[in-house]
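Consider the following assembly input.
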Amino acid sequence: MLDADFFRRWMTATAALVDREAERLTALDSPIGDADHGSNLQRGFTAVRTALEKEAPDTPGATLTLAGRVLISTVGGASGPLYGTLLRRTGKALGDAPEVGEDQLAEALRAGVDGVMTLGGAAPGDKTMVDALMPAVDALGDGFAAARAAAEEGAVATTPLQARKGRASYLGERSIGHQDPGATSSALLIAALAEVAEA
Amino acid sequence: MSEERLVGIVLVSHSADVAASVAELAKGLAGGTTSVPVAPAGGRPGGGLGTSAELVSAAAASVDRGAGVAVLTDLGSAVLTVKALLAEGDELPDNTRLVDAPFVEGAVAAVVTAATGAGLDAVEAAAVEAYGYRKT
């Protein structure tokens, strides 16, 4: 079973991965975005880490809900409300149980991804976060390692796609050939989950 | 008619200058002396381009006179931030609405309409209708 501390460690591990990969995320965001994805997420997850240490929510649901709210208020770019909605919806779907099972987490994450799709209007194949998150959620039934691999494959598979959402969509065909920064950071979020689950 | 019943308008842009200038433009075109509460929420708190949930919440609270608040945005994170705040439930005043309108023209239409004492539905309708003003 997964408790509040597991979810806090997931967020902390995400913050560490985002720190490590911030330059790469920003570099990916340069040709097709506004070159701030790495620094925006760094600011957001650093704030999440601080807030979780300070408030120490005692359930998985409250942990993710707080993380989501902090992202919405601190990121400053579209990834704030998108990641914020992902975590908040996932947290709300987990309810107030002190511990949750892997099946519940998979189900809750699906609700979170649905929330992202509703908020941003993106569908699979639009070259967005959804292209990493959806395969990860689908693979979660086969374990955390499978979810991580599916998210990474999903992120890489955005390269040949043409962006249909966000600023990159203004570039039309010129968005083809670049890996999507949001799908890449989404793969980091899932990689952090697998890392914590395997620890 | 009492001033406190006017609909409030919040203008959310990635740029603090754009939000403030559009607010000034809309109030100017509404007659200059209008008492419609209009608040810009542009850029990030420390400067720089982006959207700040805190500035949006503060702006909405500052223009709430109990008659509803119409929020107009430019694009991208501005739209998504307002939608996420509305979904949160307690971050914005009751009866706050994201209005789907062109930023500049919609802001002018919204402020002019709000200045007549019209309600939130009419303010929203006027702003949305601004999409229909063809220029060629």
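The beta strands of chain A are 2-3, 99-100. Ask yourself how this observation constrains the way the partners meet.
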